[in-house]
Amino acid sequence: MNINKTIISSLRAEYGDAFYLLDSDQFRKNFLELKEAFCKIYPNFNIAYSYKTNYTPKLCKIVNALGGYAEVVSEMELEIARRIGMEPERIIWNGPIKEPKVLEEFICSGGTVNIDSLEELKVVKDIAKRYSQTLLNVGIRCNYDVGDGVVSRFGFDVDSEDFKDAIAFVVSTPYVKLINFQCHFANRQVEYWPARAKGMVELIDRLGIIPERIDIGGGLFGKMADSLKVQFASDIPAYTVYAEAAATVFADYFRFSDVWPELIIEPGSAIVGDCMKFVGTVKTVKDVRGKKIATVLGSQKNISMNGINPPLEVIAMGNEQREYEGLDFVGFTCIEGDVLYHDYNGKLAHDDIVVISNCGSYSLVMKPPFILPNFPVLDICGGKVEVIKRAETFDDIFHTFNF
User: DSSP letters of 42-61?
Assistant: First the structure.
């Protein structure tokens, strides 16, 4: 995606002083590259895209077109998957809370529900009794120690009585199909991925059950600029490193088997992180007791990055620039901590454009209706402007209130 003063001037004249730029071409490339990295080691592999990370419908449609799964964690995300044309068989519903009536309709239509708790198991048991001739695709979320020092809150402890109850129900109930084991561990460091995979094969070995699918969740770093990489305490692995760490475990385990279950991961940031930029206009530049501060039409909540300096580019828009040292770019909100970038050194002028990259993860979906409605999302891949999401208005936010 090439961005320059001419392109920005045109977009700003049409869509205002702040907007997101979506790079759908890069998203497609990332999906295919990640899939290829795992398929080289374990051919029966697929990706379930994490809708919560960035549920922009165009991205979800790309996943569907490429044969991936939708990984959803709420009724809202389930409805997105339906509206973009995902068949129920291609939707995996995780999450700690599921509305029983929606769960019932979904699982009876062929979708996969990964049971997360004993309470949810009771709901599925009741559905199985009432729909005794309907095939129900059921998965079990598995929780075990991967050595990262975190006790995950998701799924069943695989050594618990609750887990034994879940297994007994699924394997002994007619028309209930144990379609997959699933786990979710949020730590992105690649050194914990072998333990994640080994925990799954040890469980399969112990139970003597090979499900149709093995889903080892998400939690991968994605592509990012070098200026961002150096701010992390650990290395940022390539897709191939994650594949070698996890897929190799399964390839070795099943190497003499006639059955190779489909291996699934649930990436979000790993494929969408570098696929969105935020573009904001510098509205004020001032000196407060020796500290240089530039206020941008945009907010930390638009980029969802705290405690680090994101990749940033300043595009001069014509006013006379000055050289600054230690300048902070701050947002439009009335929060002292709303800082987009600390200690910028370089040229800047009022009305210049600030382009912040690597904000495709959680930024758009977690932006609250705080102080201002959100800005439009534009895709300029392919030489034309596609409005992916128009700018929000007052009425979009306040039509649910009673005035």
Answer: -SSEEEEEEGGG---HHHHH
